[in-house]
Amino acid sequence: MYQVAVEKVGDYRRELVQEGLARLLARLGGMERFVKPGERVLIKPNLLSAKPPEAAVTTHPELLRAVILQVQQAGGIALVGDSPGIGSAVKVARRSGMLAVIEETGAEFVPFVESREVQGSGVYRRFELAAPYLEAQRLINLPKLKTHEMMTMTCCVKNLFGAIVGTQKAAWHLKAGADKDLFARMLLEVYRLREPDLNIVDAIVGMEGNGPGSGDPCQVGLLLAGDNALAVDQVAAEIAGIPKKLLYVENAARQMKLPGAERAEVECLGLDSNEVPFRSFRLPHLSDVQFGLPAFLKHRLRNQLTSRPEVVEGACRLCEVCVKTCPPGAIRVEGGRLRFDYRRCIRCFCCRELCPHAALRLKDGWLLSLIKKSGTPL
Fold first, then answer.
1. CATH 3.30.70.20 for the 295-374 domain, yes or no
2. Which intervals hold domain 4Fe-4S ferredoxin-type (predicted)?
3. Which of 23, 121, 164, 323 counts the highest number of beta carbons within 10 A?
4. How confident is the model at residue 300 (pLDDT cuts 50, 70, 90)?
């Protein structure tokens, strides 16, 4: 059985987070089970973009502080690193409040800049992952529980996509992002190259709606932890009330028969997921109803059965973040406004995810719109 600890923590007051984390880890044997004296321990938070903690886009700095202190008390050397979706790691860490915590605790900040080639053993035979991610003796994964417009949920496994440095993320979106199942498989292959020693989920305040960057904060009041990322993700999905058919990563993991992918293998310690008094997360905009269609129909009906990004009138400031981060280069500025090439657009929604002004929305293709209006079960 793969154990997942669940602990109630009502808010981010420092003493509450530190006490709650101590109780959470005690259910798993304490931080000493995962960290030995003298080991270099990489803590990998979610540093998606430069937003303040209250936006719930990034891991909360008080949880990072509590984890650093636990690592140091166990005798470990605490490192903190990630590669943001947009902007420098230093800028994102400063804006999110994490850089101040790193400096106050004496941890070492190791932004993911350099990468090393690693041989895969699945669909993809070659990856380049951040050097600090590969070199650390221990890895603690520190994701935020959020919805995700492409994968429906982002938690432990999805957070490890940050081990891919900078613009290489766009290359992977271009390579695998046009197919959600294939993208999920790629995420799992990254996960298997370096599985975390411990996963601790920030679900005190999560994000629902159009996550991971443009959704709404939602109070959950929980911390989750476990040494198997897939097991933790399953419990997180239950707490969020996300239907199994929409969990692309978890469904791909079951097909691959990965450890922790079956719910029967998972034991909750403390609070069971079905005892959590919380309403289901409001899910992202349903942007695709191509599930199960043969490839030739997917190609022919793609524009009709999917959503596409478009500008919210009056909201775009022409900062060109979307232009610079669009994996297939399907966005340009022309005549003082954004223009989209929907033939090239792969519907990864990186533009919406990274837009700092929430200036993009999704418009349904006519068949998708008709299906939604008809009430046909999806």
1. yes
2. 307-335, 336-365
3. 164
4. low
